[in-house]
Amino acid sequence: MYKIGVIGEKDAVLGFKSLGFSVFPVENREQAVETLIKLAEENYAVIYITEQTAAKITDRINQYRERRFPAVIPIPGIQGSLGIGMQGVKKCVEKAVGADILFNE
């Protein structure tokens, strides 16, 4: 069975525990990078990461972009969305169909 993890600020990720996800609160960039690498090595299939945390480790997240697992998916944190998740969706759609059919920019 595949595992799902959530990385981010404590207040933003604790609610996911009630859904059965593994929750990993982090306080800084180093902890976020260590946790992301650890979860990837432990064969997590999906890793949700708050956009505020993802913004700090974009270079590390991009290392997993071409791999099948884990799927690293930015989600809005408690401060709201930074648009990182939508930018990821936009890039994936452009790569898949060769044009921006969602946002028409």
From TrEMBL:
InterPro entries: ATPase_V1-cplx_f_g_su, ATPase_V1_fsu_sf
Keywords annotated in UniProt: Ion transport, Transport
GO molecular function terms listed in the Swiss-Prot or TrEMBL record: proton-transporting ATPase activity, rotational mechanism
Domain of life where this protein originates: Bacteria
Pfam families assigned to the protein according to its UniProt record, in alphabetical order: ATP-synt_F
Record family assignment: Belongs to the V-ATPase F subunit family.
Protein name (Swiss-Prot/TrEMBL): V-type ATP synthase subunit F
Native species: Thermoclostridium stercorarium (strain ATCC 35414 / DSM 8532 / NCIMB 11754) (Clostridium stercorarium)
Recorded name of the encoding gene: atpF1
